[in-house]
Specification:
Chain A: Belongs to the snRNP Sm proteins family. Chain A: InterPro entries: Lsm7, Lsm7/SmG-like, LSM_dom_sf, Sm, Sm_dom_euk/arc. Chain A: One of its GO terms (molecular function) is RNA binding. Chain A: One of its GO terms (biological process) is mRNA splicing, via spliceosome. The complex is a heterotrimer. In chain A, 0% of the residues lie in helices and 54% in strands. Chain A has no helices and six strands. Chain A is globular and about 40 Å long. The termini of chain A are far apart. Chain B is an alpha+beta fold. Chain B has a domain at 3-88: Roll (SH3 type barrels), CATH 2.30.30.100. In chain B, β2 and β3 form a beta hairpin. The two termini of chain B are 33 Å apart. A five-stranded antiparallel sheet of chain C has the order 4-3-2-1-5, with no helix packed on it. Chain C is elongated, with a radius of gyration of 20 Å. In chain C, a hairpin with a 4-residue loop joins β1 (42-47) and β2 (52-60). Chain C has helices spanning 2-10, 18-32, 105-109, and strands at residues 42-47, 52-60, 66-75, 83-92, 97-102. Classes of the chains: A mainly beta, B alpha+beta, C alpha+beta. Chains in contact: A-B, B-C. Chains A and B meet through β5 and β6 of A and β2, β3, β4, α3 and α4 of B. β6 (87-89) of chain A pairs antiparallel with β4 (53-61) of chain B, so a sheet runs across the interface.
């Protein structure tokens, strides 16, 4: 392969910073990134999980539980984003035209 | 044309990505790889039902969770330019059909890799001057939900 | 055919390498019976989540990821005619594709979609 440039995202810049991770199956956790490898296994400290609506497991609620120090298995990691600057906002899209 | 070449060409452009779980992400493509893993900047995430929204400065999405990507129409024309200039530079059949038997696949993969790298530098430059204001991306989520 | 001749020459004194032969045949089938001859034609795609997307096939790869240009979604309902949503240029991941079909443009043009009622497709259950 050409130069093993396989990581699209350089996780180094997130080390010791808060990251939010979505996992296959719908769990969502956030914590401080302490380490990672090229398979996207992540070590998160002070991790919390956002609990989900028991009626609709696709929806997360604002309820959380503390997990502490965890490893997220790379194969299950769906999405990684920094917590810093991530906020829930109002609908930013112009009203979808009916058609 | 390979889907991943198109995606690579779309670097710097706004796009909409729907994941298998129904969430959609609108953002500018920073980078992608041969697994379709993507890195987006200035992202707006929309929940499956289109009723909640989050903004995030950037995010990394694993390729295999993607359902589809919507890219600006003009990107497809830029790919064609790229492929043409590439085939001018190299003898035909570099990507396909060289090597024999099994080796074929690996040579193909190499061809892809090189192509991507090519697009990389150019894509970034184009992006900055590039198209702004994606189409009303959110309407998809909202419209359905 | 040319492929097979080459193999024959290379292994003229010996038995042709069956595995290699099969590989070539498979490869030929993959291209001949595959999507190659649908490129630049209008195709209809049904995705795992039950959507029907129609557009011009611009490209594909081994994973059946496909590029659809000028695409639109056809939304079926029992209450009103078929709604067409303009989607534009799409890359659909192969994982998410159930069916790719050639679209008979003439036949399609003769349909009155606004009068057509149908149940929406259910998503694939994995």
């Amino acid at each position: 392969m050409s130069g093993r440039k396989e990581t699209v995202l350089d996780l180094a810049k997130f080390v010791d910073k808060g990251v939010q991770v979505k996992l296959t199956g719908g769990r969502q956790v956030s914590g401080i990134l302490k380490g990672y490898d090229q398979l996207l296994n992540l070590v998160l400290d002070k991790a919390i999980e956002f609990l989900r609506d028991p009626d609709d497991p696709l929806k997360t609620t604002d309820q959380t539980r503390h997990l502490g120090l965890i490893v997220c298995r790379g194969t299950a990691v769906m999405l990684v984003s920094p917590t810093d600057g991530t906020d829930e906002i109002e609908n930013p899209f112009v009203q979808p035209d009916g058609a | 044309m390979l889907p991943l070449s198109l995606l690579k060409t779309a670097q710097g452009h706004p796009m909409l990505v729907e994941l298998k779980n129904g969430e959609t992400y609108n953002g500018h493509l920073v980078n992608c790889d041969t697994w379709m893993n993507i890195h987006l900047r200035e992202v707006i995430c929309t929940s499956k039902d289109g009723d909640r929204f989050w903004r995030m400065p950037e995010c990394y999405i694993r390729g295999n969770t993607i359902k589809y990507l919507r890219v600006p129409d003009e990107v497809i024309d830029k790919v064609q330019e790229d492929t043409k200039s590439r085939s001018d530079r190299k003898p035909p059949g570099v990507g396909r059909g060289r090597g024999r038997g099994r080796e074929d696949t690996s040579s193909k993969a190499k061809g892809i890799g090189r192509g991507m790298e090519d697009g990389g530098g150019r894509g970034g430059g184009r992006g900055r001057g590039g198209v702004s204001g994606g189409r009303a991306g959110g309407s998809r989520g909202g419209g359905r939900g | 055919m040319t492929d097979l001749k080459i193999i024959g020459n290379r292994n003229s004194q010996q038995q042709p390498d069956i595995k290699l032969l099969r590989l070539l045949v498979d490869k030929k089938m993959a291209t001949d019976a595959g999507l190659e001859n649908l490129v630049d034609q209008i195709i209809s795609v049904i995705t795992n989540d039950g959507r029907n997307i129609v557009g011009v096939l611009k490209g594909f790869d081994q994973a059946t990821n496909i590029i659809l240009d000028e695409s639109h979604e056809r939304v079926y309902s029992t209450k009103e005619g078929v709604q067409q949503l303009v989607l534009g240029l799409y890359i659909i991941r192969g994982d998410n594709i159930s069916i790719v079909g050639e679209l008979d443009e003439e036949l399609d043009a003769s349909l009155d979609l606004s009068a057509l009622r149908a149940h929406p497709l259910k998503p694939v259950i994995h």
